[in-house]
Amino acid sequence: MDKIDKDLIDKLLAGYKGPEDLIGEQGLLKQLTKAVVERAMQAELTHHLGYEKHEPTGRGSGNSRNGSSRKTLQGEFGEAVIEVPRDRNGSFQPKIVPPHERRFSGFDDKILSLYARGMTTREIQGHLQEIYGVEISPSLISEVTDAVLEEVKAWQTRPLEPLYPILFLDALMVKMRHEGRVENRAVYVAIGIDLDGRKDVLGLWTSANEGAKFWLQVLTELRNRGVKDIFIACVDGLKGFPQAIETVFPQAQVQLCIVHLVRASLNYVSWTERKQVAHDLKSIYRAATAEEAERQLSEFAARWDGKYPTVAALWQRNWDRVIPFFAFAAEVRKVIYTTNAVESLNMSLRKAIKTRGAFPSEEAALKVMYLALRNVIAKWERPLHWKAALNHFTMLWEDRIRMAMGASI
Predict the structure, then answer these.
(1) With bands split at pLDDT 50, 70 and 90, how would you rate the model's confidence at 265?
(2) How many C-beta atoms surround the C-beta of residue 131 within 10 A?
(3) How far is C-alpha 228 from the chain's CA centre?
């Protein structure tokens, strides 16, 4: 497309004194938008009728122009009253501003973007009024955001990849109204890394609290949606969790999430010594071998048991689920215990929900979290060292890859 003529711009800006002349209530942007939209609709009508205005070929064509009707259009330019052309047969429907549409293309995305950032309906209403001078009713905002629910349902039931070498499973608590009362409910999150190294959120689920039985339902749903195998499942220390995973995916290796374990450990440590304890714990999970890690754990216990005996005991109690990743090369370990995907997602979800005292329903909570995670997923990149990790997985489990992927490899 050719650049706009500079002489035309100079003419449009003749008499310009300040921003108000450009973006104000009667500014150039609003006038231009109105003029361009109306001209585009006239061009669409010409195409629909098959002849230009006043052309003799239009006589006896069976249809003709029939004046216009007014419509108030809302957009980032504010509100503008536009003239919508009509035809006598009533068959013309403009595409740039479809019938019954009163918001300019992209304006709904602006509402959804604000909603995804945790703003309430009233806050969005005030923001749009303040920034764009547009009055939007709370019911209209709800209508726009409710339209996301169908997208959420389709996303939640979409087919999944047959194999995810690594699966991260986590849950966070969210206040929402359920059966007439506000309560903390668990929102379950599953993040998978496929053979190409792509990270994706496989679904969101809600329950009264986090429990192994509900995780069993989640994992069964993942299998029903097409997941045939998982190599490594990274989880927190929830009782019964490993058994739930192994029930659905018997060959999966369950790895306790190191980030969760470190965080749980630091809950027992005073603020003044958390940095030092975290540093000493690092020597355990970054050891070269399981034997070296066990020796580091013993040294940690000797140093800290006098003050915080619970920390070493916590690691010892979960040791069988801590050490599986020591069987892998260093590159694979970094992919497993560096749970940046989980942490960045949870941080974004918490940021989106922290401004809300409580959600009026589960659906309202899922809408906000879905929109928030959609923004996060778009920025995700392939984990570092993924090629090295994939080579290692292939050497170990090439038969499982072929069985899960079937004819697709």
Answers:
(1) very high
(2) 11
(3) 25
